[in-house]
Specification:
12-stranded mixed sheet, about 500 residues, 3-stranded mixed sheet, alpha/beta, 20 strands, globular, single chain, about 40% helix, 19 helices
Length: about 500
């Protein structure tokens, strides 16, 4: 292929300079974003109901518009999916990114407007490349192709008015012809629903392509690369694609995967760049390869606010601040307003700023206990329902439990490892485990997808705790009694490993 990287680098210069100005103009840029969002939506049903035409300042906006969870917006979103126009955003919204649900819904449907695609999601993709080229001036990324790993649409949630599915499927469905010149696999393969078949088709179709870059979720990408190695008979991805130079990753924490990727891709010229691209928007890019913190992208169609987690946990949102009011080191729940019709929306993620001018942050977790090793986003409510169903199915009585992710014994994928103390043992531990897994798949669509055919997540592993093992662990830390509790779900293994040693 002709190396078009020099030409692309030239096209990125203006954007690189604009991002350089973030340090001195965050407040100005964010207020411009707020003004254009409010102005654009002033004639919608939501804008009319909340007096958008009278909003002249951030203070006005904060006074007139409430902080929303999905529950407050889902009624309008349901109508929009059925073809209603001008509710949360002008006109009709055709696409909805499906993500894991709330306590009352198996899935959430996040509106993705045409404008949001352009001014948020694709803007983030362009800037990821622009900042990478700035950091790696000798790159030849456009001398080959990019393996962009996507999801699929969910036919059961699509209708004559709208399409619902993974955000990545929406992005691939709307990508420009220019990007398609540099992307593999084909659109047909990329949007396949059966992941086991898809990863095989991907691996076979791209073995001889000059792949220079990867984009996707680390867990899913690793599964595809494993298949590439199996088919090729190689032991190192660098032998398959000697031109490979960067992995743009996001969706889940990269830390558990970092060493495995280094072992799988031995090239000393390999780079890793984290992005924060969620169903709700594209928010951050790792602009410095030596700093794991990401740059907050403040001139897209996203207005940011942040609630200190101490207040959030107490149900007190009075401490909410715009980006220019944050302080480094404080754990915040993130609130967004976007051109997709999300107004002061609690995204569910927590962040900690590491610096200001420019504003850089790390994702610190979720607003609730969770396991999200693969993007499955299992929350405590899911776990409680699953334990209850398993008890009903096997006659068990559970006293305490906790769960954490664990690399599968065969070294491929993950399992959820559960440590359970029973008051009354189940009729069969195997039946208990199967019922637990079955209910988790029923109540959480993301978990169900990751468990499909045991490819990236295998059957949970349930360990039986000895009597009082949890109490003894609490006592050893001076936390027995009172309001101290065993965390039901943890996204790392610190507590689980301590418990197993106790």
């Amino acid at each position: 292929m002709i190396n078009l990287t020099p030409a692309v680098k030239l096209s990125c210069l203006a954007r690189q300079k604009a991002v350089d100005k973030y340090a001195a103009s965050a407040r100005h840029l964010q207020l411009k974003v707020l003004k254009r969002l409010v102005s654009a939506a002033s004639g919608t049903a939501y804008g009319t109901a909340h007096g958008f035409s009278d909003i002249k300042s951030y203070a006005d906006f904060a006074a007139k518009v409430p902080v929303n969870s999905y529950e407050e917006l889902k009624g309008d979103i349901k109508k929009m999916r059925l073809g209603a126009a001008d509710l949360l955003w002008p006109g009709k919204v055709r696409y909805y990114a499906r993500s894991s649900g709330t306590t009352s819904d198996r899935s959430k449907f996040i509106p993705v407007s045409d404008r949001g695609l352009r001014t948020i999601h694709y803007a983030g993709g362009f800037d990821s490349v622009a900042l990478y080229l700035k950091n790696v001036p000798d790159s030849r990324i456009f001398a080959g192709k990019g393996l962009i790993l996507g999801g699929s649409f969910a036919p059961e949630f699509c209708n004559a008015h709208s399409k619902s599915g993974d955000l990545s499927a929406i992005l691939i469905d709307n990508v420009s012809p220019f990007v398609n010149l540099f992307r593999v696999p084909s659109r047909e393969v990329a949007l396949m629903a059966d992941f086991s078949e898809k990863r095989d088709r991907i691996a076979r179709s791209i073995l001889r392509e000059p792949v220079t870059n990867l984009s996707g979720v680390p867990s899913w990408m690793m599964s595809v690369l494993d298949r590439v190695l199996e088919i090729s008979g190689k032991t190192d991805i660098s032998e398959v694609w000697p031109t490979l130079e960067v992995f743009f990753h996001g969706g889940v924490a990269f830390t558990p995967y970092r060493e495995r990727y280094k072992a799988m891709i031995s090239s000393p010229g390999m780079h890793y760049m984290e992005t924060y691209n969620a169903s709700e928007g594209f928010f951050g890019i790792q602009d410095d390869p030596l700093d794991r913190a990401m740059l907050l992208m403040i001139d897209y169609d996203v207005f940011y606010e942040f609630i200190p987690m101490d207040g959030f946990m107490a149900g007190d949102y009075s401490g909410i601040v715009p980006v220019w009011g944050v302080e480094p080191g404080v754990n915040y729940a993130m609130v967004i307003t976007t051109s997709c019709g999300l107004w002061r929306y609690l995204i569910g993620d927590t962040v900690i700023f590491t610096g200001k001018d420019p504003y850089k942050f790390i994702i610190s977790g979720r607003t609730k206990n969770f396991i999200n090793a693969l993007g499955e986003e299992v929350i405590v409510d899911n776990a409680e329902k699953a334990v209850r169903a398993a008890c009903e199915a096997t006659g068990a009585d559970v006293r305490e439990y906790t769960a954490a992710p664990l690399f599968a014994p065969d070294g491929k994928g993950f399992v959820h490892q559960w440590l359970v103390e029973f008051r009354r043992a189940p009729s069969s531990l195997e039946a208990f485990t199967e019922a637990l897994d079955r209910e988790l798949r029923a109540v959480n669509s993301d978990y169900d997808a990751k468990r499909s055919k045991d490819i990236v997540m295998q059957m949970p592993q349930v360990l039986v705790a000895r009597e009082n093992q949890f109490d003894d662990w609490l006592a050893s830390r001076g936390k027995l009694g009172g309001q101290h509790k065993i965390p039901r779900l943890c996204n790392d293994r610190k507590i689980m490993d301590e418990l197993l040693k106790s």
